[in-house]
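Hypothesis: this fold can be encoded by more than one sequence.
Test: take the structure tokens below, design a sequence, compare later.
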């Protein structure tokens, strides 16, 4: 999957939450606004909430040019962003109307660190809710 975009043009993006995450295990890329799922994804990768932009908690460190949300993750050995609290990260996430799009874990493989933060508005026509289990 590494050569494909996380947001392929021809496929809808499936929106999941804690109750529907296990549904449709054949879907490799999903999206969520569920804070608990995002925290679990980050914890499995030892990723920490971070930002490149100036905020109340500190100065800018990297120009991320992403429409002002400025949030990212620092991964072990690759911490170029300024660490922030989950509270601050999630505040930016919700204030900017973002979706967390990520590659799901594949049993027997090292968890992928591929993710994107996109606005819900940018994916309105591509989002499909998973409502059945």
């Amino acid at each position: 999957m590494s050569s494909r975009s996380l947001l392929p043009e021809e496929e809808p993006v499936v929106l999941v939450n804690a109750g529907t995450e296990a549904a449709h295990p054949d879907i490799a890329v999903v999206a969520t606004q569920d804070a608990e799922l995002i925290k679990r994804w980050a914890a499995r990768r030892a990723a920490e909430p971070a930002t490149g932009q100036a905020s109340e908690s500190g100065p800018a460190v990297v120009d991320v040019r992403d429409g002002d949300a400025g949030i990212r993750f620092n991964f072990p050995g690759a911490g170029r962003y300024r660490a922030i609290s989950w509270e601050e990260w999630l505040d930016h996430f919700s204030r900017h109307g973002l979706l967390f799009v990520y590659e799901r874990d594949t049993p027997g493989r090292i968890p992928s660190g591929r993710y994107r933060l996109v606005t819900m508005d940018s994916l309105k026509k591509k989002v499909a809710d998973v409502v059945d289990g």
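The chain is about 15% helix and 25% strand. The chain has one domain: 13-129.
Hypothesis status: open.
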